[in-house]
Amino acid sequence: MTSTTLRAMNRPSGSFFYRLALRFFGDREFPYGEDLKIQADAGIDRLAAAIMPKSYIRDSKRIALRFYYTIAALRVRTGHFVDPHNLDNVLRPNDQMDALTQALIQKMVADSLTHDTINEAQAIDEARETLFYLYALNIVGETDWFGNLTPTLQQRLTAIVGVIGQYHEQYFNALMSAVSAEKIKRDLFAPVLTFELYARDSGHRRRFDLREAYRMYPVLVEMALNVSREIAPLVKQPVRDAEELFFSYLFTAFVAHFEPAVIFPPIKVDIDITYRPALEVILKRMIAGMAEFNIVFTNRFKDDVDLVISDAMLTDVDSRYRFDWQHLPNVKELEQLRTRLSELKAQKFATRFERHEIANSQS
Predict the structure, then answer these.
(1) pTM reported for the whole predicted model
(2) Lesser CB count within 10 Å: N end or C end of the chain?
(3) Rounded CA gap, 51 and 139, in Å?
(4) Beta bridge partners of 298
């Protein structure tokens, strides 16, 4: 076993312990005293001002950073420092980073050197560890987060997004837009970075409700599962581990950043309310808010319409495709509508899959 391997095994998983502390103490009083809390918050404020002057650090991330700053300060005061070696696998040398990040590291080094238990080389290592932790929390501000990664990690992120693009074209017969690709790469940055060093970190392994995900986005569930399995060699994980680590990140990124008009088959809905025209406005707002569907409203129920909602009892419309509503729908009626919309979406996906010769067992 090499010395590098030994260092990797012995290096404590800092982000793992910080997340444990956050989950345990997040709803409790800060356990390290008011003075350290004030010092940590002042450090966080200086950091935020340095890299994200037009934004702010969310409260949940401030809690995590508060623990990080406090534990790091206690370590340094007692002469305990991070092992820098693994960080070189994910972060470029400081002098190859963008100017803003270099300035941030210099500020952090200067702060660390106020303690007489640390030298400059150790302070630089601590600053790089802090940068890694910021990135693991998805706090990047205006730094060049992608450019600050090693070429290996850059290539890995690019390759993962390439795999996603291939599946996007296969499933939806359309190229993934450059905007979607960039947003997905940005969302996957933190987990890819973190799992490069801490792939056994259970802090990220939160179970997803697959039943609800299947109900809302059946094809995107299948796509996320397939992509997570295919990228296993890229992230140097067994297939099962890659699926467990990356599925939820992939699935939520797909739902958030794929263009709905491209991936969701349009469902034409005619809302024809005669006696209470304001109700028609309300119903459109309610249905348009069902984000899992690509709803297209029309005012002609004979114009290739999928569903009709009306207060006029339109008997010439098949009852399977008609909702007779003369009032605001109750919870049960809304659920019936959502169920019918889900069935229509699945049918349209099935038709598309047959046309593109893609298996659709889960749709």
Answers:
(1) 0.83
(2) N
(3) 9
(4) 270
Q: What does each of the 363 residues of the chain score in pLDDT, given as a tens digit?
A: 333 333 333 344 455 555 555 566 666 678 888 898 898 999 888 888 888 877 778 888 888 888 888 888 888 888 888 877 789 999 999 999 999 999 999 999 998 888 788 999 999 999 999 999 999 889 999 999 999 999 999 999 999 999 999 999 998 889 999 999 999 999 999 999 988 888 765 444 555 678 888 888 888 999 999 999 999 999 999 999 899 889 999 999 999 999 988 888 899 999 989 888 899 999 999 999 998 899 999 877 666 889 999 888 666 777 777 898 988 999 999 999 999 998 898 888 877 766 554 444 333
Residue carrying structure tokens 């940068």: 131
Question: Rounded CA gap, 163 and 349, in Å?
Answer: 21
The tokens describing 300, both together, are 């002609």
DSSP state for residue 270 in the 8-state scheme: E
Burial annotation 181-217 (CB, 10 A radius, 16+ → b, else e): beebbbbbbbbbbbbbbbeebebbeeeeeeeebbebb
Number of Cβ atoms within 10 Å of the Cβ of 30: 15
- Select from 133, 112, 114 the least CA-distant residue to 17: 133
Per-residue buried b or exposed e for 43-64, using 16+ beta carbons within 10 Å of the residue's own CB: bbeebbebbeeeeebeeebbbb
Say if strands 322-324 and 266-272 run parallel, antiparallel, or are unpaired. unpaired
Q: How far apart are CA 353 and CA 340, in angstroms?
A: 20
Phi and psi torsions of 271, nearest 5°: -105, 115
User: Whole-angstrom Cα distance, residue 194 to residue 133?
Assistant: 9
Give me Rg for the CA atoms of the chain.
Answer: 26
φ, ψ (nearest 5 deg) of residue 322: -130, 135
Tokens 């509503």 locate to 325
Residue whose entry in the numeric block shows the structure tokens 């340095």: 50
DSSP assignment string, 70-98: HHHHHHHHTT-----GGGGGTB--GGGS-
